[in-house]
Amino acid sequence: MHGPAQAGWLLVALCAATGSYCLLRMRSRIEEQRRAAGGEALMGFGMALMALPAAVLAPPRWVWLAYAAVFGAAALRALWAARRHRHRHHRHDRHHRHHLHHLVGACAMVYMAVAMAATPGAHAGHGGGGTPALTGALLLYFAGYVLWSGARLLPVPTLAAAEGGGGGGPITGWADRTELAMACRLSMGIAMIAMLLTL
Please, are residues 8 and 125 in contact by the beta-carbon 8 Å criterion? Predict the structure, then answer.
């Protein structure tokens, strides 16, 4: 009985810590970095709340529907940003891919929230009523994303330096550390896999 609860609290701590760092990243001087960090902070805190053990918090059905509405709006925003960025830049641009990843993540949150709303007493990690085929497709996507981002998690210049900001040398402020941002995205990908596995 203690194992699942402890795993749930670890997941909550991981997602909350990731969301907190994303809030710090919103202080970046780079507009694109701030926008991405805002979406990732929402995702991190949303996942932390969703992963709370059912013994601590068992939300009514309307809460899950509100979750679906919030992340549905986040998905529409990510779709709009991806379309706008594709028209302005090359469709394989790094920022365009990142908007598409935000879109998939927000859709996954909507899917999990709807599954929990449809199953009385369901909660993250406690057997929601998801569709096996869709759950499997999302698991494959996030597993691939985790492997890809893990392989890319090597010492890299800060995003500020890559964007040409900051004048002479690279900026190493906490809000602009590209490797930490990548580690946060990797952590959220792993957390998403854990939540989908228990759906």
Answer: yes
28: buried, middle or exposed (CB in 10 Å: 19+, 13-18, 0-12)? buried
Tell me how far apart the alpha carbons of residues 197 and 192 are, in angstroms, rounded to a whole number.
9
Structure tokens at 73: 């709006």
Tokens representing residue 31 in the block: 């507009």
Q: Find the DSSP H helices in 51-177.
A: 61-88, 94-118, 132-152, 159-162
Reading phi first (left if > 0) and then psi (alpha if -120 to 50, else beta), residue 125 is in left
Task: Answer yes or no: are the C-beta atoms of 179 and 156 closer than 8 Å.
Answer: yes
d(CA 90, CA 170): 26
| Dihedral sign computed on CA atoms, order 132, 145, 101, 19 | positive
Contacts of 114 (CB under 8 A, 6+ apart): 64, 65, 68
Q: Which two tokens stand for residue 29?
A: 């001087």
Q: What is the tens place of the pLDDT at every residue in 76-127?
A: 998 988 787 665 655 556 667 788 999 999 999 999 999 888 875 555 545 5
Closest CA to 65 of 106, 114, 127: 114
**Model pTM score:** 0.80
Structure tokens at 94: 């790094």
